[in-house]
Amino acid sequence: MPSAPRLSALPLVIALTTALATPLAHAAGPAPSALPSFVGELTARHYDGRSDDLLTAGLGFTGLRGPIPRAADPDRPTAAELRRQAIWGSAGLSAGSGGGLGRLYGPDVDRGRPVPGDGKVAGVEYRAVAGTDAHSVSFVVQVPDDIDRDRPCVVAAPATGLGGVYSMVGTAGAWGLHHRCAVAYTDKGMGPAFDDLHSGTVMAHDGTTGPRAELRGRTAFDAGLSDAERARFDAEHPYRVAYKMAHSGANPQATWGRDVLRSIRLALAVLNRDWRDGAPPAGYTPASTTVLATGVSNGGGAAVAAGEADRTGLIDAVVASEPQLNLAPLDGIRVRQGGRAVPAAGLPLIRYNALASLLQPCAALAEPTAPGYPGLDVSAARRRCAALVGDDPRLIPRRDAERAGPDGLPRLAQDALVRAGFQPQSGYLQVSHYDPQTPASYAMSFARASVDDALCGYGWARTDSSGTPVPYRRAELAGAFGTSSGRAPAPGVLIDENSPGGPVADARSVGPGGEHDYNLRGETCVYRLAFPRAGAPRAERDWAARLAEGLDETRRDGDLHGKPTLIVQGRDDTRVPVNHSSRPYLGLNSRAQGGRGTVSYVEVTHAHHSDSQAAGFDNRYVPLGYYYQQALDLMGERLRGRAGLPPSQVVRTVPRGGEPGHAPELTRANVPPIASAPAAGDRIRVTGGTVWVP
Description:
Helices cover 28% and strands 16% of the residues. By secondary structure, the chain is α/β, with parallel strands linked by helices. The strands form 8 sheets. The chain has a 10-stranded mixed β-sheet with strand order 1-4-5-7-6-12-13-24-25-26, sandwiched between helices. Strands 16-15-28-27 form a 4-stranded mixed β-sheet, covered by helices on one side. It has a 4-stranded antiparallel β-sheet with strand order 20-19-21-22, with no helix packed on it. The radius of gyration is 24 Å and the shape is globular. 56% of the residues are buried. Residues 1-29 have low confidence and may be disordered.
């Protein structure tokens, strides 16, 4: 991504409520800090902690437990209404407390105790943008009125997954605000921005939507097509939508570390502009301000990326939960579990996910009681099984298939996933994690593909009951900022542009014979780009090379420059398998630090990538979010000099049990704490380049 133009000379825009209690800049102390050069326009709004606030958007904990707040006019929601919806979604309290959220952990729990009152936090919220359109990155900095100016701190919390800039308010944001820190968020250049190529509707940085011409200069994403190209594209592929993560052409993963560091620099700058009595005499600097970078999933990967990119001491520590990491070549780093070498380690997401998408419909047949199985097309899944048999050793070898027979193919698909580095017990989760959108969108992002390229025959659109693309309703586009996961606006779905009979929802795709086949064509295409093959056609080789180049820009090498780091992950993670993320990263860090690694890694049994409490998950799994909040507490103690980090370890949890959908409430007996002195049989160690996991 090219550097944003220098915009520091542009006017500073301050939008304040009439309830602003204190001026933004005091005469005492150092001169107001200049804004970082990447910031064009800064807005600031003070929230009084009654009608609106930083943590709950005025809803209070009671409102966060209720239904999603509705906009007065769903076709034209205001920026404030969209912000409220996004913050409501980040808290997750409406899911109920059976799994411990809102009772044992969550935005209303601080250091194991319920937060008194309704949780509203008064303070100033700053918004800023770096870059423009497809290359833009959004930032939000929240400064509570009661910020600890004697021991100032900043929590940098990049967005989780493909979510928007507010997606970490209810987790890391809540933790930071409870500890009287400023909190710096960034969407990492992704988020829910879209360009509806039929209606011409786009999204502004504040989440509001409107015609492209009216929002010019404020758009968070533009597909980059000329008017003539748009008209042609819509005529040939009506009602499609481009979305930022896949179609920006910017490979935003490559700049995650930079974006997190920018959010921190912005936080320090606004703290210095907002000078108050009791502030550090020399101002808010890396020397005077404790900075913690933290995130979940993609956000955890971004926090780690920032830790590696920071060579000047801006960041003091890193906490990551289930981080999605594309690792540098392991070059001798090995992982062993229970004394046995794991079958595969250190693959990037695009590779293990492209492989998993091919195998999962077949593998799902081996777990008929798993969540998601009732939605499986069994006949199509069996056809997928047959299509996987061949000479590719990553799939189902022909010789094994002949021995097992047709009924044994699902188990062989499960075996193939284990050979690819997935945990054996994750077989139960494969059907619920089948998601061809993920490898398709990452392939487009890495390869810097345009929506017009329709890479591997994929597009996105709203569809009717038959799966045919149809126009979006205005309210669906208007509400995307508050409801979208960062992909195409709901209810947009992946489209198979090459399905016989015409484009159709990917889930309804058919093969050459007219039978549903889960779009074997498209998934095989992405797989071949992720795993280039000798003798491939020229176009395939070119796209594979572009993908590989983009992927290499995102590699992590383990060098955190001595920063204390705590990583937690669920052993059963099926979205980001432990063998391809935290485990080998522990080894890379040890090597980069000359055998004195600064990462503590906590692996939690019976936990995976989602804290869903739906039937079938509730009785089998414990929430990783409980341990993420505990990890933040432990790092907080470490940064205050009160305790060291715990050694790397396995935490052995106890599932809630009971019948699916009727599990008893989670108690502390189910989730033992991270141990300061774990038993020898629970210690994870790194020796001689090998990561030893119990």
